[in-house]
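Operator note (shift B, R.M.): manual run for Zinc-binding metallopeptidase requested after the automated queue skipped it. Running by hand, logging everything below so the morning shift can see what happened. Input copied straight from the record, untouched. If output looks odd, do not overwrite the archive copy; leave it for review.
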Amino acid sequence: MQRFHCPACASEIWFHNTDCLQCGAGLLWRPEAGGGAFVQTGPDHATCANRAVIRCNWEAMAGQRLCRSCRHTTVVPDLSVPGNDVKWARFETDKRALLALLGALGLPLGDAEGAPSPRFEFRADPMDPRAPRVLTGHADGVITLNIAEADDAERERIRSEMGEPYRSLPGHLRHEVAHHFWQVLVQNDPQRLQDIRAVFGDDRADYREALAAHYRNGPRRDWAQFYVSAYASSHPWEDFAESWAHVLHLLDGIETATAYGLLGPTGLPSNAGALLGVPMKRLAGPWIDLSIALNAVNAAMGHSSFYPFVLRPPVIAKLEAIRALISQAGQGTGGL
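Run finished. Output pasted below as returned.
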């Protein structure tokens, strides 16, 4: 994420702000191809209809009630249930950041008819404890997310129960959107499919059985040598999705660290779109150095690790395959 300044008083603001904390000016994010900018609220800039509900700070599209981000959401939780609005808002805040990043990378965010794609469904578990829980996942361009994970305690409980080193809302979004882009960019392109299979393995392996075996027997013993996470070893689709998520972690993380002067002179570009053109071997070095330093700072403050992953050469090669795919697919597209 870049650093931003109030268009009225030039004080620093953050990507999620609806108002400048210094001068009180109302703020709107206007997404544009490859990026965007903040403007002041006013007669020339319509606010999104969800601003009052979830503090959406994006500008409504011309002739529309909703902004570009909110138009991607097709199902919202029952807002008559106390707390659902807060959980939904937390997911939408991170979804806006995700869409801004995907747009900066030039990835397509519409289907063949121009409708928003992927679509997001934010659902709550049914009140009846005997009824099936909402499962986070992707199916044919629809990303379903269980808003229970917006509760930090619940997400930590699941993380601990699953034996995961890391679980976050941006991580969920970045992982699930990868499954969408597998279908959009890879599935129906014979050459790309062949290239991706050469790196991640044959995705025609039975998916349900692979996941069942993973949860029944655990990951393969040598997973850490070849996969960015234990879950990535369960099936090529999950390896692809986990690797995709980590490419977005690196691009966004390095952009943010550069904006705040945390990396020192690296010779790297300062924005995610340009960083996409840098080979992963080149990006991995500064990222690893930054991760080691921030892991140590977090430990000193009694927090969990900032980035509890090891990027060995086989993993970096997989991240490079994803980076190259996004770079190729993003050429000539307008993104947001």
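Quick read of the result: The beta strands are 4-5, 12-13, 27-32, 35-40, 73-75, 119-123, 137-139, 142-146. The radius of gyration is 20 Å.
Leaving this for review. - R.M.
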